[in-house]
Design brief:
PAS domain S-box-containing protein/diguanylate cyclase (GGDEF)-like protein, 10 strands, binds ligand C2E, 13 helices, binds magnesium ion, alpha/beta
Length: 292
Amino acid sequence: NADAAMYHAKSSGRNSFKFYTSDLNARAREILAIESQLRFALDRNEFLLHYQPQVEMASGRIVGAEALIRWNHPTLGMLGPARFIEVAEERGFIVQIGNWVIAEACAQIARWKSLGLPQIGLAINLSALQFRQKDLTANLEEALSRNGLSGDSLDIEVTESVVMEDAEATVDTIERMKAMGAQLSIDDFGTGYSSLSYLKRFKADKLKIDRSFVQDIPSDLDDTAIARAIINMAQNLNMKVVAEGVETVEQWNFLAAEGCDLVQGYLLAKPLPAEEFTALLARGILLPPDAL
Ligand code: C2E
Ligand code: MG
Ligand code: MG
Ligand code: MG
């Protein structure tokens, strides 16, 4: 199937699988099952958010979480975003899905607030396509006010390519979000390309070191040097650094020694269903057992 082959050739990015000819038919069938069901998924209430804690290294306090979308597909079961986000972007569904994410994230923050749990910043991922929508900030404001929240409850994650897109609309949107009090985080930092002057201009609050630089520290000397450089640069520009994908205590110890501020990764917790995350938040502290 030529379309499927094209699709695969295009999707060699970090969020895709590697396909081999033997898998091609299976993946092509899966894409069909995804495309045909995607338009009904919102109405059928098949999306949900999982929450992964972000922990302050110095204290072990859970100070934030990232909301990560899942799709409970009628025939394929629970799907992670790598399986459907790209299709949703190509088919233009991402804007509606993204609005659902905004609404659900705000509703969840309000639930935690009503339970009297520690206030955390909830990070949401926004696609570049959402940034081209004129009503993005209005949607954010509406979802916040409907739930009685102020903008500082939200942490907006964008990739370098969004920040680097010099479109006036993007600059405007980011400035309005910051004026609302939302935090701005640069996701997957180091995998795209961004000029340092842009970082300065947008005054991002956080840089998230991509998992690809974290997974082989401290044994890989290049990755170790890159992680260290990102941490130093962020400190000098008054940004916080979040290390993504921390899985081992060796990584944790290295990052702690380098002065990394926050950690997110399987070492602490996988992305969790709301109820499980709520129980974790009630405890408030999350530290790896053997950390130095
Ligand atoms: P991301 O924003 O960089 O999110 C981090 C990803 O790394 C998540 O994958 C998370 O589960 C995974 N991760 C966290 N810690 C570890 C670890 O220790 N080891 C490993 N191996 N993985 C770890 P997930 O949930 O599959 O999401 C993948 C990507 O999908 C996200 O990458 C983000 O770009 C996108 N995404 C997720 N939710 C949304 C959404 O609501 N809207 C949009 N537009 N994109 C989303
Ligand atoms: Mg993210
Ligand atoms: Mg990331
Ligand atoms: Mg990523």
